[in-house]
Amino acid sequence: MNEPLDAEMFDDPACSDRAQPFRVGDKWTAMVLRCLEVGPRRFSELRVPLHWVTPKVLTETLRSMERNGFLTRTAYDENPPRVEYALTALGRSLLGPLDTACDWARTHVTEIVEARAAYEAG
C-alpha cells in the first residue's frame, strides 16, 4: 500500500501555484511559442495560423504569457496603433522542452491514439 499523500507537499515555494507556470501545458501557449520563435509578431499575424482560436482566448493567452514573463508586449505610438509580441529569454528557454515534448508525442502518437480509442470504446 502506498504512503498517504502529505497535505503540505506543495507548501514548498518552488512547487506552489505561484511559481509553476501551469499555462505552459495549455495547448494555445505552446502554439504561440512556436509562432513567436522566429521573431516578434502582431496580433493579426498570430491569428493567421491560430485562426480557430477566438480573439478573446488568444488575448487571454497572450496576457497570461506576458504575466508569466514568457513574452513582451510592445505598443507603438502610431496611427493606426501597432502592438507586437516577442518572446523573452524566459519564453525562449521553453522552446527546448517544447521540442522534446513534440518529439515524444511524434514517437508515441500511435500509442496515444490507440489508448484514446480503447478508452472511448470501453
TrEMBL record:
InterPro entries cross-referenced by the UniProt entry: HTH_HxlR, WH-like_DNA-bd_sf, WH_DNA-bd_sf
Residue ranges of domain HTH hxlR-type in the record: 15-113
Full protein name: Winged helix-turn-helix transcriptional regulator
Keyword list, A-Z: DNA-binding, Transcription, Transcription regulation
Pfam families (UniProt xref): HxlR
Transcription regulation among keywords: yes
